[in-house]
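FOLDING PROBLEM:
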Amino acid sequence: MDEVQAKLRPFLEERGFRWRARMCNRKTSDGLIHVLNFQMGQLSLQGRFTVNLGVNVPEVWCTQFGPGLRPFVGEAECCVRRRLGELGPEHRDRWWTLPLNNSEIDSLKLRLEHDAFPFFARFETRDFILQELRPLKGNTGAGTPNRILCAILLVHRGEKEEAKGMLANQIREVANKGHAEYVQSLADQLGLGRIET
């Protein structure tokens, strides 16, 4: 994996990413953080790796988990998360087997170029995030549910009524008492008051 990363390093650094261990971060002009993580497989996936992508929105993280976002962000700290394979022609999880030869490294660079970077471009700004996720129900990945993410962004823009409506829809859609309590506590924290469903 170290050899794969060494060969990918110049390619990713040219695109604004900086490295720490198996993780890359890139800050956008809007203050969001794009994250690439090279995850090694365990047990039956030993000797293989996958590529995780994430987008961290600092105010969403701090609202949900409190202040103290680290200077270098991990993929688990992202509110929008996908795996590279899900974005490509497979539309499902993909694990690469180590070692990779030069042709396979070139193929992985193409996958990053064709699948990862367009994904990041869709989540380059807060406006883009709202445009992409506002119309969607449910959750489109392993991150924060779409309506919760959008509601937090809207509150920070002063659009509290729309945020409140989104949280009410979230409670109705999930129909789980524990989740409803979580959403209400989030609404209280955001200064939205009681959520009526």
Summary: The chain is about 45% helix and 15% strand.
